[in-house]
Write a structure and sequence with these properties.
Blueprint: E1 8-13, H1 16-32, E2 37-41, H2 44-49, E3 51-53, H3 72-88, E4 93-97, H4 100-112, E5 117-120, H5 132-139, E6 142-145, H6 148-156, E7 161-163, H7 167-171, H8 178-185, E8 192-197, H9 202-222, E9 226-232, H10 235-248, E10 254-258, H11 261-267, E11 270-274, H12 277-284, E12 289-293, H13 297-306, H14 314-319, E13 326-328, H15 334-346, H16 348-365, H17 369-383
Parallel strand pairs: 1-2, 1-4, 2-3, 4-5, 5-6, 6-7, 8-9, 8-11, 9-10, 11-12, 12-13
Function: Condensation of UDP-2,3-diacylglucosamine and 2,3-diacylglucosamine-1-phosphate to form lipid A disaccharide, a precursor of lipid A, a phosphorylated glycolipid that anchors the lipopolysaccharide to the outer membrane of the cell.
Enzyme class: transferase
GO cellular component, one term: membrane
């Protein structure tokens, strides 16, 4: 029998949320094609799923407009090293997951060298810098979008696209058990819990730790029965947040968890969350939330000029209405965060209405994402 060449996939994720998506993508493909090989950059979830990581994912963990400028030399070298590796050891397809400022440039060079390219998770070209769609059209053979309105944008610009649904909408049940989650975390079953989710990046911890902790402290002083929980993507983020906790609110009844963010969401009554994928997860767990985000002053001024959407939180973008409060920059004060958290606790009827809307959005995002992604990847590999 003729020996069949093992197919190899290059893959790159830039942060924790991309690591989770990459891991599920690898698992979906390997369930149908067990001998596929994966190499590139991922986090612990992708490594556990079978990705051979060539470099540390932390080298890509940058955010905003200004902060990455200080990392340009290292990022240029990293992209050059990856390009050289994939040219010398060409994969059958390269899949860039999110991290568009890094990935799209690499994808363009790889595609020009004859390597088929898929980009998974659309950059927010529909929100700002729409001119980027021209470069994306040259850089990818196929765009995979998580959200339905993104696919419509690419269709309008004649970029090959497939809406594959959001895997989190399949993974997270329509209904979850709060008490079961609390038992899994070994916390009080009957207490009222506020979850603090300040983000997975170092800069997010830097900007959001103080307002979240001070908001929690204010809420606790007003309602001494409240308890608080927080989750962090790894030990490094936990230690960084813990230092702020010791500095600002050392007596706050706050329990820390690492790599348990979904359990913490499921266990919470209300959530303070930094804008990003965590807002979508919180929505899928049907938890009332306050979305807050701070960044450097210069980054914020640039964002105000460039961002064209009325909302920043994914629940609000999906609904195209302000379902949950968004507190950005100076508006993300401890007082405002505290006020919104307590408002949810004081008005259970608002929470019920919000949960019904979240359920509708959850169903909208459900699709056979694993099957859709597998079919899409194999179609590009087969056409190569």
């Amino acid at each position: 029998m003729e020996h069949q060449q093992v197919k190899k996939i290059g893959i790159l994720a830039g942060e924790a949320s991309g690591d989770l998506l990459g891991a599920r993508l690898i698992q979906a493909l390997r369930s149908r094609f067990p001998h596929l090989q994966f190499e590139g950059i991922g986090g612990p979830a992708m490594a556990a799923a079978g990705c051979d990581n060539l470099f540390d994912i932390e080298r890509l963990a940058v955010m905003g407009f200004i902060e990455p400028l200080f990392r340009i030399p290292d990022l240029i070298k990293l992209r050059s090293d990856l390009y050289r590796h994939f040219i010398q050891h060409p994969p059958d397809v390269f899949i860039g997951i999110d991290a568009p400022d890094f990935n799209i440039g690499l994808e363009l060079k790889l595609r020009q060298a004859g390597i088929p390219v898929i980009h998974y998770v659309s950059p927010s070209v529909w929100a700002w810098r729409q001119y980027r769609v021209r470069k994306i059209a040259k850089a990818v053979d196929l765009m995979l979008t998580l959200l339905p309105f993104e696919a419509k944008f690419y269709e309008q610009h004649q970029v090959p696209v497939r809406y594959v649904g959001h895997p989190l909408a399949e993974q997270i049940p329509l209904h979850t058990d709060k008490i079961e989650a609390r038992r899994a975390l070994c916390i009080e079953e009957n207490a009222t819990y506020v979850a603090l989710l300040p983000g997975s990046r170092r800069q997010e911890i830097r900007y959001m730790a103080e307002p979240f902790l001070r908001a929690a402290y204010q809420a606790w002083k007003l309602r001494p029965h409240l308890r608080f929980i927080t989750a962090h993507v790894n030990e490094q983020r936990y230690q960084e947040f813990y230092e702020y906790y010791k500095l600002y609110t050392p007596d706050l009844p706050l329990e820390f968890f690492t790599r348990r963010s979904q359990d913490v969401m499921a266990a919470a009554d209300v959530v303070a969350v930094t804008s990003g994928t965590s807002t979508l997860e919180t929505m899928l767990f049907k938890k009332p939330m306050v979305i807050a985000y701070r960044m450097s002053a210069l980054t914020y001024q640039l964002a105000k000029l460039l961002v064209k959407t009325p909302y920043v939180g994914l629940p609000n973008l999906l609904a195209n209405e302000l379902l949950v409060p968004e507190l950005i920059q100076d508006a993300a004060s401890p007082e405002a965060i505290c006020q919104h958290l307590l408002d949810y606790l004081d008005h259970p009827e608002k929470v019920q209405t919000l949960q019904a809307r979240f359920t509708e959005l959850h169903q909208l995002l459900r699709a056979d994402s694993s099957g859709c992604i597998s079919d899409a990847v194999m179609s590009v590999m087969g056409a190569a």
